[in-house]
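Subject: Protein record for review, amino acid sequence with backbone structure tokens
How to read it: Take the token row as a discrete description of the fold.
Enclosed: The protein record, placed directly beneath this head.
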Amino acid sequence: MQLTVLQGTEQKTVTCVPGDTVLQTLVKHGISLPAACGGNGLCGKCRFRRIHGTLKEPPGKDGWYLACRTHPLSDCVIEIPASGGAFAVLTETGAQTGDLSQAADRDFGIAVDIGTTTIAMALTGRQTGKIYRTYTAVNSQRQFGADVIARIDAANKGNLAKLQKSVREDIERGITQLTDNAPPVSGVAIAANTTMIHLLMGYDCSTLGVYPFTPFTTDSIHTDLWFEPQIPVWVLPSVSTFVGADILSGLYASDFEANGKNCLFIDLGTNGEMVLGNKDRAVCTSVAAGPAFEGGNITCGTGSIDGAICDVHMAMADGHLQIDCETIGHAPPCGICGTGVVAAVAELSRLRLLDETGLLDDTLQDGVLLCRTPDGEPITLYQKDIREIQLAKSAVRAGIETLIRAYGITLSQIDCVLLAGGFGHTLSVDSAVQIRMFPAALAHKIRPVGNSALEGAIKALARPDAQTVMEKIKSVCSEITLSNDPAFQDLFMEYIYF
């Protein structure tokens, strides 16, 4: 059967095999449609409208179908939503930028940060460590699910080759753009979480998602680029299955190996990885925060795209709730991203429109209407969404407190807190403290460090002793597994409250 897909001003006709869902067909032909739950019919993000043709599944609300649950029974024409804008992918690092036409460097490399949601890349000088060009993209694997568990599940169900091909093509496109009319590069350094590395390399993922969560490898990987020209590639080492090369790269970027002070390093996303310690000893862990910080499992949630509500301010006037929303790029609102949800929940808590258990005030039982899209569609925060952020923030806080106990110090003995990644870069620390995600005693010590994973990869390309130093950092890190830790469970229940 023929499936014609309309998206904005674009049109593409592809072949649909009988028995395949619309989502499976789109994935096979490289057409991206969000599927945060991995195609399990739970998130409601893979929506489309039928223009013409016969479908097996009846439509849902307002005539929308779910691509993961719908099978074409004839030639069909469907419409999928426009992307809503490009993701705001963070490329800000501590590295200096430079003009390629005036570069003092004579040797160049490409640094890559493969995130679960997005990919950031930089053309960099290997003598100076300067950034000359950057490239960002959405990780095309997102159509297989929003988090690493969904990706592992997809890989184990026969999609490993597709997942590998998807991310490698993403990187190929980036390298092609970065090297256009530029000097040749002599090396590529890649930082990523352990699951993304497995999918990039095509490693067996069958032991990643089940106890005792054994990775194929956490060592450095030295290989060649998989397309011409075959440039040497170094995939940076990981600490463990849950504390990946992106975290080790971030620690390296932060000169962790030379720091005698107690530093707490936190990278928040679908997983919350954290490391506490110094050059002599460190403890690390990862908490399953879920996709709420990236807009996943939120009713009107979206990623960090233009138009996503990223900050919210509320006030009571004459008994009425007044709401002011700020969007990414100051574009017309299209949904709410993770920082926006945190800000909205913090404001509701501050105004006591949310009780300590997370229950909305009786006057808001139908949800909190934040604003409307240009088409008049409501962007509403519901009780269910508050529960999602409640679980995420409690996991993060319990993880922090568990690390502090395991390391054997007090809050006052933590000298600095480094907050890495895109979510942490734009997160309001005051909002995070208000909902008890971070201890108030640490608020003045928190410093956003941008894309430290990318910065570490840039630094690794510029310094010949990078692998030795990273291995040294790795050797002082001991991992705490939280899944069977009674202290973590007790702390999680304590910090579930607002």
The two ends are 53 Å apart (CA to CA). The chain has eleven helices and 22 strands. The CA atoms of residues 104 and 323 lie 51 Å apart.
